[in-house]
User: Which sequence fits this backbone?
């Protein structure tokens, strides 16, 4: 194998333990040095392991940017502090341009970029589908008549490659593959097509795949959550180091910067957009480990956990206020409680933690901090506005079939389907109902309109991206076209791709729950932390850039999983910090063979 080194009583406690952690007043953490891991509680030095771990735990923290990790690592004292005693790569890359939940999660355990997995975004438009709705959700089975893009029949059918858990099951039939999150798409992209147990949050509890019976662990978790929802929950305390971030910021009609996550009785969304949903996700994961005896069988098992609260909070309140600070403390605490429970089960487990993408703060706060480039896109870049502008210029009166059927009772807009898109950035599709010459004219006018806008950083056509080579080399050096190419699929990608300027937020009008976002090609959305930990393995920190597609080949080497040549875009990382050399062993971990 090529050796690629980087350059350079718990079940009974259940939710009660996790909720108690959330409800207790937060003590102020002492000031600590930048390398906070050194201040973690001292434990007896464990012997270095000599056999592969029996359980792999892959944790994705949704919207957990490298910037957030750097900003808050000095305050971590629990679960994240433990992980910082392992192998730390503070600047890993989700290398592609479409930095959204579905593409980002798809890279973590497949080892390939979205250009190979086919997951180009959270949604795309298939203008040739016989379904009246042309929007396709990344984790739905649109061939099921019960599925819509907003209320999907959840499936991993669009994922074109296997996940690590699936490869493990193919090699060792006794291996179990379990995935838990607050988001269905995170479960599907990390778990894949063959999942033994799959759970995500829906409304006021966890649900699973169509025709699946909920396990006792999920029923118990849901009962605990419903009991809490019935009475509501008080606001969370903030540690002293969060208090300076308490400052009201007006984003349109929404006020952010002072929230503390009180839960009104019966309001499931209050739980979802709070640290409590992470605690519930981890509690369910721990219950499943115990009940299924994960890590205790004859073959290694895979547990995927995606924690969604950081993303929901980032969207609702931005990344720099009191809300995110409280979330960072509770994320650390909830992870610590989870690891303690795994320890008590006597499992030999290895952990990797990363993120699907980063995020950007609300532009109103950024502007207040003298970042004049921060702003919101104009409504002129919304697909509806572009459809009307182009129709007027080219004399197109319609009717053009809509991208999404109008709401019941609404009058159809005759040209609303001229340009289809999910948002005022990213992929745009031109109606297939037009004659080819007219379609080409609309595409040319769409490119011209976008390039004339002051918010635009780059505009690429489908043909331009298709002609670009697959990017290699260090991801921080990739030009915008290469970043777009890493997100490109010839069958699914749009006719035109719009990349916005740095710090330009594609939300023209902020609303409750959606004031800030991600999805850009810039490094605040592409850079994420990457942490590996296993008991007894010495730590290291490597600042050189790596990629999230390096995770699957690294974990494959760790458990001795043979993989076909060319299966991965990433490379194996030596994470043991010593002479054992994770990547030098009997297993043949196949990568694309590209140096970075």
Assistant:
């Amino acid at each position: 194998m090529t050796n690629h080194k980087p350059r350079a009583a718990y079940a009974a406690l259940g939710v009660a333990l996790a909720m108690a952690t959330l409800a207790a007043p937060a003590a102020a953490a002492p000031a600590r040095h930048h390398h906070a891991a050194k201040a973690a509680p001292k434990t007896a030095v464990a012997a270095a392991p000599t056999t592969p771990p029996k359980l792999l735990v892959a944790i994705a923290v949704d919207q957990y940017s490298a910037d957030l990790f750097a900003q808050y690592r000095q305050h971590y004292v629990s679960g994240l502090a433990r992980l910082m005693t392992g192998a730390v790569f503070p600047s890993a890359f989700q290398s592609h341009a479409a930095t959204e939940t579905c593409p980002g999660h798809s890279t973590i355990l497949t080892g390939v970029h979205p250009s190979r997995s086919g997951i180009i975004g959270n949604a795309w438009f298939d203008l040739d589908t016989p379904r009246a709705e042309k929007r396709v959700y990344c984790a739905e089975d649109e061939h099921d008549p019960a599925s819509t893009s907003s209320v999907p029949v959840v499936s991993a059918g669009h994922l074109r490659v296997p996940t690590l858990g699936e490869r493990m099951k193919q090699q060792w039939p006794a291996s179990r593959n379990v995935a838990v999150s607050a988001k269905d798409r995170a479960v599907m992209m990390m778990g894949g097509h063959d999942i033994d147990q799959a759970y995500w949050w829906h409304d006021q509890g966890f649900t699973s795949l169509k025709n699946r019976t909920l396990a006792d662990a999920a029923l118990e978790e849901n009962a605990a959550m419903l009991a809490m929802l019935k009475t509501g929950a008080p606001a969370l305390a903030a540690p002293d180091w969060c208090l300076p971030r308490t400052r009201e910021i007006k984003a349109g009609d929404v006020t952010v910067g002072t929230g503390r996550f009180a839960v009104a009785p019966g309001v499931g969304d209050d739980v979802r957009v709070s640290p409590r949903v992470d605690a519930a996700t981890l509690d369910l994961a721990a219950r499943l480990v115990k009940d299924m005896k994960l890590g205790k069988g004859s073959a290694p098992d895979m547990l995927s956990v995606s924690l969604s609260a950081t993303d929901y909070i980032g969207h609702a309140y931005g990344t720099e206020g009191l809300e995110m600070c409280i979330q960072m403390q509770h994320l650390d605490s909830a992870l610590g409680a989870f690891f303690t429970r795994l320890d008590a089960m006597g499992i030999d487990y290895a952990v990797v933690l990363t993120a699907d993408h980063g995020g950007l703060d609300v532009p109103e706060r950024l502007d207040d901090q003298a970042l004049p480039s921060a702003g919101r896109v104009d409504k002129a870049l919304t697909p509806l506005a572009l459809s009307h502008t182009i129709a007027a210029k080219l004399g197109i009166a319609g009717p053009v079939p809509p991208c999404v059927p109008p709401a019941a009772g609404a009058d159809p807009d005759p040209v609303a389907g001229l340009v289809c898109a999910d948002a005022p950035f990213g992929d745009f599709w031109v109606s297939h109902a037009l004659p080819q010459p007219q379609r080409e004219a609309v595409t040319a006018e769409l490119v011209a309109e976008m390039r004339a806008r002051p918010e635009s950083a780059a505009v690429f056509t489908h043909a331009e991206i298709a002609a670009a080579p697959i990017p290699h080399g260090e991801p921080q050096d990739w030009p915008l076209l290469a970043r777009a190419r890493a997100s490109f699929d010839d069958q699914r990608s749009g006719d035109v791709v719009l990349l916005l300027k740095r710090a330009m937020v594609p939300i023209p009008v902020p609303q409750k729950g959606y004031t800030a976002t991600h999805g850009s090609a810039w490094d605040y959305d592409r850079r994420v932390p990457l942490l590996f930990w296993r008991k007894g393995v010495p730590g290291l920190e490597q600042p050189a850039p790596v990629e999230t597609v390096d995770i699957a080949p690294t974990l494959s080497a760790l458990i001795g999983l043979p993989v076909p040549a060319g299966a991965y875009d990433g490379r194996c990382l030596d994470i043991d910090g010593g002479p054992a050399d994770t990547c030098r062993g009997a297993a043949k971990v196949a990568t694309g063979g590209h140096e970075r």
Observations:
- The chain has two domains: 10-29+55-110+162-366+522-526+546-559, 378-454+456-500.
- Confidence is low (pLDDT under 50) at residues 1-40.
- The CA atoms of residues 21 and 333 lie 7 Å apart.
